Amino acid sequence: MLVHSRTGRWAVHALFLLLFVPLFALPLLVVVAASLSTHWSGAFPSGPTTAHYAAAVRGESLQALTTSLVTAVTASAAALVVGTWSALAAASLGRRGRRVLDALFMLPVAVPSVVVGLAVLVAFSQPPVLLNGTRRIVILAHTVLVAAFAHQSVSAAVRRLDPVYEQAAASLGARPSYVLWRVRLPLLLPSLNAAAGLCFALSMGELSATMMLYPPDWMPLPVLVFTATDRGSLFTGSAVAVVLMATTLLVLLALSRVRTRASYR
Predict the structure, then answer these.
(1) Most exposed residue of 57, 99, 104, 173, measured as fewest CB within 10 angstroms of its CB?
(2) For residues 17-30, b (16+ Cβ closer than 10 Å) or e, as one string?
(3) Cβ of 232: how many Cβ atoms within 10 Å?
């Protein structure tokens, strides 16, 4: 920790709590409280119930949760493959080439996600690649939005790699493909794991681009939360939002438990 004095550490902790509680913890607690209530006419909710959760894990909500999981897992895997490949390719380029490649990947993040959704909708609503009205266009948009984070995460790890391992393998006669699969990628596994978790979390919560693209039979859970609250079903929408948060946290917790030999080097 950068602060070494006891007084300074206490001050930092107090400042953290002062900012964390009202800005992050309190809004989440309000959502949880609303999901367990039937009325909220005063300062506190009333009418405790778990009926909203019963509705949030079956029927349309369960289908939307499955849709979100499939979309997030598929988009994260695709983004991880593309981001890893581009990061490895960028390592062999000059400084100018790396900057151009980084800028191309960061472009979808630099503009509002609704613009990305519109761009994907316009690009793939006409032959020869017609994806409008299919689940593939939603997965494609999510992949475009989260690939930048995979690229940046893996690029940073590639730059930190010690070339000694690759040089040793090459000096023993290993082919470039063998060095890639048995040396470089295993050393990158901790960063790949972190990138996968980040891409998954971002995809699970994506709404703006999804609203422009999703077909009626492929509604992710954030869209269901929005439509429920927009219709005035605040308590049901809060329960669905809690299910979304809990599912995302469980998957991230499972990913954080993954350990590789490279983690201990």
Answers:
(1) 173
(2) eeeeeeeeeeeeee
(3) 9
Task: Give 56-264's CATH code, choosing from 1.10.3720.10, 1.10.10.10, 3.20.20.150, 2.60.120.280.
Answer: 1.10.3720.10
